[in-house]
Amino acid sequence: MTSAVANSPFEAPKSGRWLLFGWLAFAYLIAAQAISIAISPPDRDMGDLQKILYIHVPAAWNMGICYFLVAIYSMRYLWKRDERDDLKAAAAAEVGTLLNGLTLVLGMIWGRPTWGVWWAWDARLTSTLVMFLIFAGYLALRAFVDEPERRAQWSAAAGLFGAINYPIVYMSVRWWRTLHQVQSTPDTLDPSYALSLRLNAFAILFIAIFFIRRRYEAALTERVAEHELQAAVLGGSSRG
Amino acid sequence: MALRDEWHRARAVAWKDLTAERRSKAGFNAVAALAVTILVLFGFALGPDSEAIRAAAPGALWLAALFAGVLAFNRSYQMELDGGALEPLLMYPGARRALFAGKLMANFVFVLLLLVIVIATSLVLFQVAVPPTWPALLIVVLLGAVGLVTLGTFYAAMASRSRAREVLLPLLLFPMLVPVLLAAIQATKALLVGGAMNDAGAWTSLLVAYDVIFLILTFLAFDYVIEA
Amino acid sequence: MHSIDTELAVDATGVARRFGARWVLRGASLTLRTGEAAGLVGANGSGKSTLLRILCTLLRPTAGTARIFGADVVQDPDLVRASIGFFSPIPGVYDDLTARENLLFAATMLGRPKRTADETLERVGLTHVSNERVRGFSSGMLRRLALARLLVHSPRLLLLDEPYNNFDVSGIALVNELIRETLARGGAALVVVHDVASAVPVVGPWFTLRDGIVVPSSGIPLGIPSPTPALAMASAGGTR
Amino acid sequence: MSCKRLFLEGHPVVSNVYFVVGAYAVSWIVLLAYLFRVQSLLRRSRAALAHARSAGGAT
Fold first, then answer.
1. D22: which chain A residues are within 8 Å (Cβ-Cβ)?
2. Distance from CA of A115 to the nearest CA of D (A)
3. Looking at the domain assignment, is residue A1 inside a domain?
4. At residue C22, what are phi and psi to the nearest 5 degrees?
5. With 0-12 CB in 10 A as exposed, 13-18 as middle and 19+ as buried, what is B132?
6. B8 or C196: which leads in pLDDT
7. Which of B128, C65, C116, C225 is least surrounded by CB atoms within 10 angstroms?
8. Which among C14, C18, C23 is the nearest to A237, CB-wise?
């Protein structure tokens, strides 16, 4: 068993307590949603609609965290060339794109009864959509390049550039909007709303961490399998 | 010393790309014809109302330049891949950023010529008058072209060597270019069809910031993208 | 172990390379001293070209290490590229440039004076077509142009992949002259050949690539009687 | 509650419980679908690893 491990530059990941973490994360999500739905009174104007925001806003925040992780791991990959950083960046990008899509869909479901339209070219919406497209491109790049090292280098550059572009995209879209109309932003928060938002933000954060870890585990296990198959073909010689 | 060598190499790559482009009959003329066609199609899409067309002219001309330019970016590496010339090119000693600089210069010239044709055509087709502030327009065009070409040349280095290169380059490039396109279109609009001058100023500074950030980043990252 | 030994032109240990699921090289090891011109033979698809591409930094090995004059092909590719010349079966010239322009471009990229380009054109016998576009050239002429690029470079280590293909008698003589000159300068050459007879005057020792591994051949392969490669021995002491 | 400001003037308050239920349903479907996808990826790569180890032991 130990000799099998030595044939790969890194060990196969073990799930350990992560499975328990996942169960707890989902349980916590259910609890957070139940509490926030129970304690927040229907909004004067929006009725029950604000309950959508308990998922929409946390998803948007955690999407930002995921993209930040992509930037960090991509940079680390380019610096240290550790394959694991590439796989971590890829996992974070996939989960980020997932939350990004969720943010967009929930935003639309919220916007339809609130604004009367499914979509508005609002700064936040538009830049979120652009980020979704950028990281969809990142995932497509990964899908279209087979050679692991080349894929790692290219997607590290693409992921880093995408994440760096986020503030520039947001600023440009905001300028584009403000030239036409003043954007309305919420500035005060009802305490029960703020508490609910915070509870759910952590719930989605835990789910995101669990997903990234699981996705990374799957990718790393696959790579270890490839490395060990390689070692077997080479007659047990180690890469060192 | 080393920097001067790199400059010579970059210049040689740019000269080589442009000479080959100039001599291949299918090259620039076809791409320019495509750009003009796109402009005409925009005219149809936006209807015969001359007010609406005039308002949409800046967007149409930048998008026409972008769609046609994407072809140039992929061609720039396709030229190397076709004859197996990429291998000798990568084996020349010295830093690879010289290759990037050379390709960047060649693509810049290409896109700039494209923009000249596109702007001239849209002045006629979309009934826009040359503004008295045309030097400002020139600056916007130059800065916008730098933005398009920098990321275009960079992403084409990856996309042209992947499977599905035709679709991958626009998929990667277009969302990344949103800030440049917005800024270039809005600044051009402010200068061409009126609007406060300070609008154009703000957009121009955004263009400068974007160009500087991504010029630095692409030069730093090109080594990782071209090798392997 | 990893001390820099400039006596060793090529020092490859356990080089392996995989394309997708297919293993082309499975731990090839090869050493080549300065003043030696080694011949490498092997069946189609045995990995000869792959090995050359790894040695000239165009491909990364999946496993194993290779050094060229002490410089690692993965760690110090810049150093390696400065000392090697790769002659591929594909000419890799630009169709829309003239012969002279192609060579001037190569000279500029290699940091050689322009006059060497003209001298070399003369030497490979392309002066009469130097201002014609390369598009209409025969494959033999294209190969001569590619050879001219190598002559302009005059590297310390030649990596020649099927150098005699498409060449007439004078072309073959040019290739052998290039090898002799390089050896006389204290360089080395690794020659992949099918046409063993053309290489016999300058090449030896011989190696065979079989099942992804390099094995030394006793004498010249394919049953051809083995004359002593006098040149290789004569110039072995000429190392600077 | 500030979100009322995003609310268009004069737009009637519609019965929007369907939107809320729809939004929660979409979120859970997305999260569970991704969970199943990742779990199946993990299963598949573990099978590949087991296969590689048995191949390694055989040679």
1. 109
2. 6
3. no
4. -95, 130
5. exposed
6. B8
7. C225
8. C14
* Structural domains counted in chain A: 1
> In terms of CA atoms, which chain B residue is nearest residue A148?
B228
**What subunits touch chain C, counting only 3 or more CB pairs under 8 A?**
A, B
Beta-carbon separation of C62 and A233 below 8 A: no
What domain range includes position D48? 30-54
DSSP string over B174-228: HHHTHHHHHHHHHHHHHHHS---HHHHHHHHHHHHHHHHHHHHHHHHHHHHHH--
Report yes or no: C75 at the A interface, CB cutoff 8 Å.
no
Q: Which domains does chain C have, with CATH numbers?
A: 8-89+154-234 (3.40.50.300)
Which residues constitute the domain of residue A103?
Answer: 17-239
pLDDT single digits (tens) C51-73: 999 998 888 888 899 999 989 99
pTM: 0.87
Q: Helices in A81-190 by DSSP H: which ranges? A: 83-115, 123-144, 148-178
Looking at the domain assignment, is residue A4 inside a domain? no
Q: Which residues in chain A touch residue D9, judged by CB atoms under 8 angstroms apart?
A: none
Which of D14, D23, D49 shows the shortest C-beta gap to A109?
D23
pLDDT digits (tens, 9 = 90+) for B114-130: 999 999 999 888 888 88
B188-199 pLDDT, tens per residue?
A: 988 887 765 557
Residue D40 resides in a domain: yes
Q: Is residue A65 part of a domain?
A: yes
Confidence of residue A187 (pLDDT cuts 50, 70, 90): very low
- Interface partners of chain B (CB pairs < 8 Å, 3 or more) are A, C
Tell me how far apart the alpha carbons of residues D52 and D59 are, in angstroms, rounded to a whole number: 11
Query: Per the domain annotation, does A96 fall within a domain?
Result: yes
ipTM of the complex: 0.84
